[in-house]
Amino acid sequence: MLSRKSIWYVYPFFKHVSWNSIGVHHVAQLRQWFRVEEIDELAFPFIHIVGNPVVFLHPYFYPFQKLERNLSLKVPKFSAVIGIDVADSTQISKYAVKLTQYATALIVPSNWARQSYIKSGVKKPVYVLPHGVTPEWIETPPQPPNTFQHLAKLKKEENRILLLSYIVHSPYRKGFDLLVEIYRRTLAERNNVLLVLKTGAGVGYFPEYIKDGKYEMKGQVYSGWLTDQQKMELFDLCDVFLLTSRGGGFEHPALEGLARGIPVIGAKGGAWEDFLPKWSLVDSQPSKQVLEGNPIHVGIGVEMKIEKAVDRLIHVIDNLDDYKARAKEYAETTIKEKFTWQRIGEQLRDILLQYL
Questions:
Q1: How far apart are CA 53 and CA 80, in angstroms?
Q2: pLDDT score of 152 more than 60
Q3: Which among 205, 194, 135 has a CA at the least distance from the CA of 169?
Q4: CA-CA distances (angstroms) from residue 157 to 142, 183, 268, 314?
Q5: Can you tell me the mean pLDDT for 19-46?
Q6: Beta pairing partners, 242
Q7: DSSP one-letter code for 58
């Protein structure tokens, strides 16, 4: 234990969102060295403060958007407020920059996000702390199908190449339109490909698109929250991960895919350049505003050039064993060295030590 200073980590307990899954890992890592109190984001505004704790607020902007006046009165009672958040685009709003006045420092998951904050006018220290995986994500052998037995049967009986993509929310930011067009063009060249789409609970982008009658395409859609075991099983069944995002602070599923030895294809110029190998990246161009009407994220992003993405995807499909071997080697070296939660925990510890 390096310090007896009271440390609070505030994040959502009861919502299946990325803030929750990342926060759980941060707390587990910090507890190797510190005594950490976990506090649910909904309870945080009402807690009586004693002892001048250091507070991690994850996410940072959302609570201040809702309760700026209430929280601003609490800030002087903390010895430090370290905000953890993202940049989903190349710029955050003037309102967002104003809200950073209450933070002692900020943490974002990529260099792309850090540049967004700095270019937007944030004056507080901004640290880069990537997301990670446990060693089990890299070392566990391929998982036999359990949750996805139907998909495994379909792949075997129809000799399918499975293309996996995550469109959990914000379909334009996630490049859903790009994904559909890349899939349509690839089907015209390789008719044994099948798109496997992971969405959020209650989200039905892909079935609605088919219902419009614009394209006659099959696809497998899975919604809701998956455990790590289920995610591993899904990644192990699939052959290529398509990261069509225009924006986003990191895009964690692409890292998880690489860790399981799946080739990933994404656009040059996004936050994911911090962890994707060069062979994963295809030429891109500037996009429109990625989250129209959002009060925090007001900038643009990048979008992969569709023709280039299709060419790369077909090349990967035609040389799948080679690219799977490349992905596996990359996981065993770069991801294991730089993107395990233990390594990220050490970086988080070092940031915290500056404010104790």
A1: 7
A2: yes
A3: 205
A4: 20, 21, 36, 22
A5: 93
A6: 265
A7: S
